[in-house]
TrEMBL record, chain A:
Feature: compositional bias, Basic residues: 724-738
InterPro entries linked to this entry: Oligo_trans_STT3 (IPR003674), STT3-PglB_core (IPR048999), STT3_N (IPR048307)
Family: Belongs to the STT3 family.
Subunit (UniProt): Component of the oligosaccharyltransferase (OST) complex.
EC number of the protein: 2.4.99.18
Keyword Magnesium set for record: yes
Protein name in UniProt: dolichyl-diphosphooligosaccharide--protein glycotransferase
Pathway: Protein modification; protein glycosylation
Subcellular location: Endoplasmic reticulum membrane
Domain of life where this protein originates: Eukaryota
Taxonomic source organism: Forsythia ovata
GO CC annotations, alphabetized: endoplasmic reticulum membrane
Keyword terms of this UniProt record: Endoplasmic reticulum, Glycoprotein, Glycosyltransferase, Magnesium, Manganese, Membrane, Metal-binding, Transferase, Transmembrane, Transmembrane helix
TrEMBL record, chain B:
Protein name (record): Dolichyl-diphosphooligosaccharide--protein glycosyltransferase subunit DAD1
Topology of this chain in the membrane: Multi-pass membrane protein
GO cellular component: endoplasmic reticulum membrane
One Pfam match: DAD
Keyword Transmembrane helix recorded: yes
Transmembrane segments: 33-51, 57-77, 97-115
Organism, scientific name: Forsythia ovata
Lyase found in the keyword field: no
Oligomer status and interactors: Component of the oligosaccharyltransferase (OST) complex.
Keywords associated with the record: Apoptosis, Endoplasmic reticulum, Membrane, Transmembrane, Transmembrane helix
InterPro entries for this protein: DAD/Ost2
Pathway: Protein modification; protein glycosylation
Functional note: Subunit of the oligosaccharyl transferase (OST) complex that catalyzes the initial transfer of a defined glycan (Glc(3)Man(9)GlcNAc(2) in eukaryotes) from the lipid carrier dolichol-pyrophosphate to an asparagine residue within an Asn-X-Ser/Thr consensus motif in nascent polypeptide chains, the first step in protein N-glycosylation. N-glycosylation occurs cotranslationally and the complex associates with the Sec61 complex at the channel-forming translocon complex that mediates protein translocation across the endoplasmic reticulum (ER). All subunits are required for a maximal enzyme activity.
Taxonomic lineage: Eukaryota, Viridiplantae, Streptophyta, Embryophyta, Tracheophyta
Length: 750, 116
């Protein structure tokens, strides 16, 4: 256990790095929503939380929080807060929220140790835990401040898999029950629970097909399906989806299959062989007819739904091109894009090389548990290739595999050294068995360690090995085949493996410090005159909080919804939950329309303020102008008068002098670049690297109320309509009388 | 011709099954009876649902799954208690029964909650 302390403490130390660097603050966007929900829970108690209808988002629709949120994370943090306060340790809710993720990442490390111990042994377990403690992909989601579902969900995932393997290895119903309860915790925590309920049936099917059916498999799987489905239906977010959506059908299908297989084995056991043959022919002929009928009914039911019963997100996982064709909202989230090749090296580093070695090590010998590990890594590699967010599911699998590979390699090398040290040779049961087998293992092991070693020692190994074997006293014991490499090669190999580990640690610490510690609500940059801190977001939310009425509605693009409700405490129109595509399309249409049309849309939604993020002055690339193409696409998907080609010049979105008039008149352009020319006289946009097209213009329906220090967040207020209109009011016959209207003042309200 | 041979085969099969089953110990037969009872109850519930309709759905689900659940757990108990099973010869039957009771407790706790 002492050796296990170190991986956990290294996790904690890495996770706290950014609290030391910035401050104890919640990161990104989604964590702000979770923080707000946790605040509500701790203030009002669980019954109000369960029945909470939130009227401060998605105005005027509101959102049923109790039924649409995965409660695991908030309940966990709330419970922790409760326990701490009852022990008279006065922690604030924010502190508990910020530090929940590192605590659970330490638990995840412990769970990875347990899982790998079940698969291969204690050494592999410790190595896997140490690797998981530092892997950048997991660190990115478990830094202090990243208060998102994955923080507890990954722990639940690994722990559920551990309990499943333990139940499979021991055949104990107790562990099967614990497995179901842990699965329930996973369902509470994350939508990715469907990975578990599809991977485990896949593994059971694999075991049955490869002839590894045993009663332990039945005990490990069947109670999980029944209890698990029930427990999953208890969570309001899942509800009846647990029995009605296609994501769960695999578990039911394999449930039926395992019962059939169990029955067949049972009858085979009590009948004589020829009677069994008779039984088989009888059953097959009747059974086929029944099965065909049932299958036909099922297919008819499933085919009647347009998506064949799958949800949009699952479909986009199975068919990666689905989202971009049909649902632009899913395609627009940057986390849902496929990862690039370098991001694999960035996120799991050295493990990418060790995983294949681990897969080979799992096959010698192949057990139920190691076949599960192989299936886990293969499926998670596929899914991580579809969506970069799922690299997080790959990380534990990669750590387990690499832990197995590393510990096997270390085992071989240290064994070689130990048995070839002078003074140990008298009681060496080494080289027992045939030389042939030793040759075989030798070749395999040298192949495995060939990743980073030179070629020359391998040939010398084989020759030396032959000599060693012939000279040594072959003790005729029927023992496990031991393979031994020459002493020098083993020492060099161990040294190189340690060096590999050192590179991994260095990379992980660098990645955690530089790439994943940024809270993204506070930005920093280094320049020749020191470190600049950009705290514009909080500045803007603070201004909103103190200078507007409590009931004022703020419209912005959906990215900022959670932060606005949590930090500025104002009602928003759309937020990161993105459950209503039409509402988001309305906001997108407003942002793409000219000022008057946009004013009308916003006025119909009772909006008072509009928030725009603009990075042109400081070079912040994730601003609203860069996201504008999604506003046009999503808006155009619902309102056909927004046509994307109107905004494109030569297939590109441009804001310089070559931009289309529709683009230059759109609300987003105007609100981003209003008075921008006053900053440097030329209006040079540092993100798009051009001067803007329309430099001098006035706003007719909006007025600017606040711009932050670095111009990153700009707030505008809707102007109230004029009370009295000077001059004649022009109605429908504006075309005919417009020629005579030269003397009349142009009235923007008509 | 074919029908008589199949019917004769079916009879012979039935007899051999019957004689083989008669030799199982009594405690296993009791567990089998319990499994039969649970499965029959589940079937009755499905038939009732087909006649009357599935509202409220959560009650139907919890009733169904409680029957199926205890059946599955009883099968697990039978596997663990069966003396012919080599894998479980070290497991005392009292431990097996305790696990059975614990798992049933969890199952019925969830059922009571979900029943509505």
């Amino acid at each position: 256990m002492a050796a296990l302390e170190t991986p956990q403490s290294s996790t904690l130390r890495q996770a706290f790095g950014n609290v030391i660097k910035y401050e104890s603050v919640i990161h990104e966007f989604d964590p702000y929503f979770n923080y707000r929900v946790t605040q509500f829970l701790t203030k009002n108690g669980i019954y109000d939380f369960w029945n909470w209808f939130d009227d401060r988002t998605w105005y005027p629709l509101g959102r049923v929080i109790g039924g649409t949120v995965y409660p695991g994370l908030t309940l966990t943090a709330g419970t922790l807060w409760r326990i701490m306060n009852s022990l008279n340790i006065p922690l604030s809710v924010e502190t508990v929220c910020v530090f929940t993720a590192p605590i659970f990442s330490a638990f995840a490390s412990w769970a990875a140790y347990l899982l790998t111990k079940e698969v291969k042994g204690v050494g592999a377990g410790l190595t896997a835990a140490a690797l998981l403690a530092m892997v950048p992909s997991y660190i990115s989601r478990s830094v202090a401040g990243s208060y998102d579902n994955e923080a507890v969900a990954i722990f639940a995932l690994i722990f559920t898999f551990y309990l499943y393997i333990k139940a499979l290895n021991t055949g104990s119903l107790f562990y099967a029950t614990l497995n179901a309860i842990s699965y329930f915790y996973m369902v509470c925590s994350w939508g990715g629970y469907t990975f578990i309920i599809n991977l485990i049936p896949m593994h059971v099917l694999l075991c049955i097909v490869t002839g590894r059916y045993s009663s332990r498999l039945y005990i490990a799987y069947a109670p999980l399906v029944v209890l698990g489905t029930l427990l999953a239906s208890l969570v309001p977010v899942v509800g009846f989806n647990a029995v009605m959506t296609s994501e769960h059908f695999a578990s039911f299908l394999v449930f039926i299959i395992i019962h059939v297989v169990a029955l067949v084995y049972y009858i085979k056991g009590i009948l004589s062989p020829q009677m069994f043959k008779v039984a088989v022919t009888l059953v097959v002929s009747i059974g086929l007819i029944v099965c065909g009928a049932v299958l036909a009914v099922l297919i008819a039911m499933v085919a009647s739904s347009p998506t064949k019963g799958w949800s949009g997100r699952s479909l986009s996982l199975l068919d990666p091109t689905y989202a971009s064709k049909y649902i632009p909202i899913i395609a627009s989230v940057s986390e849902h894009q496929p990862p690039t090749w370098p991001s694999y090296f960035m996120d799991i580093n050295v493990l990418a090389f060790l995983v294949p070695a681990g897969i080979i090590a799992c096959f010698l010998p192949l057990s139920d548990a190691s076949s599960f590990a192989v299936l886990y890594i293969v499926t998670s590699v596929y899914f991580s290739g579809v969506m970069v967010r799922l690299m997080l599911v790959l990380a534990p699998a990669a750590c387990i595999m690499s832990g197995i590979a590393l510990s096997e390699a270390f085992g071989v090398f240290t064994r070689s050294i130990k048995f070839q040290l002078p003074g140990v040779t008298q009681n060496s049961p080494v080289n027992a068995g045939d030389t042939g087998n030793v040759m075989q293992n030798d070749v395999v092991k040298t192949e495995k360690s060939e990743d980073s070693l030179k070629e020359r020692p391998s040939r010398k190994n084989k020759k030396k090995e032959k000599d060693n074997v012939e000279r040594a006293t072959v003790v005729p014991k029927t023992e496990k085949r031991l393979s031994v490499l020459p002493l020098e090669a083993s020492v060099i190999a161990i040294f190189l493996l340690v060096l590999l580990g050192a590179f991994y640690v260095v990379h992980c610490v660098w990645a955690a410090a530089e790439a994943y510690s940024a809270p993204s609500i506070v930005l920093t940059s280094r320049s020749h005159d020191g470190l600049h801190v950009f705290d514009d977001f909080r500045e803007a939310y603070g201004w909103l909080r103190h200078n507007t009425e409590v009931d004022d509605k703020v419209a912005s693009w959906w990215d900022y919804g959670y932060q606005t409700t949590a930090m500025a405490n104002r009602t928003v129109i759309v937020d990161n939950n993105t459950w209503n595509n039409t509402h988001i399309a309305t906001v997108g249409t407003a942002m793409s329309s000219p000022e008057k049309a946009a004013w009308e849309i916003f006025n119909s939604l009772d909006v008072k303020y509009v928030l725009v993020v603009f990075g042109g002055l400081v070079g912040y690339p994730s601003d609203d102008i860069n996201k504008f193409l999604w506003m046009v696409r999503i808006g155009g998907g619902v309102f056909p008068h927004i046509k994307e080609p109107d905004y494109l010049r030569d297939g590109q979105y441009r804001i310089d002098s070559q931009a289309t008039p529709t683009m230059l008149n759109s609300l987003m352009y105007k609100l981003s670049y209003y008075r921008f020319v006053e900053t440097d006289g030329k209006g040079f946009d540092r993100v798009r690297n051009t001067e803007i097209g329309k430099k001098y213009f006035k706003l007719t329906h909006f007025e600017e109320v606040f711009t932050t220090h670095h111009w990153m967040v700009r707030l505008y207020k809707l102007k109230p309509p004029k009370n009295r209109i000077r001059g004649k009011t022009k109605k429908a016959k504006s075309k005919a009388s417009s020629k005579r209207s030269g003397t009349l003042k142009k009235n923007p309200w008509h | 011709m074919g029908r008589s041979t199949t019917s004769k085969d079916a009879e012979a099969l039935f007899h051999s099954l019957h004689s083989a089953y008669a030799s199982t110990p009594t405690n296993l037969k009791i567990i089998d009876l319990y499994i039969m009872f649970a499965v029959v109850t589940a079937v009755i519930q499905v038939v009732y649902m087909a006649i009357v309709g599935s509202f409220p759905f959560n009650s139907f689900l919890s009733g169904e799954l409680s029957c199926v659940g205890t059946a599955v757990l009883a099968v697990c108990l039978r596997i663990q208690v069966n003396k012919e099973n080599k894998e479980f010869k070290d497991l005392p039957p009292e431990r097996a029964f305790a696990d059975f009771v614990l798992c049933n407790l969890v199952l019925h706790l969830v059922i009571m909650n979900f029943l509505g």
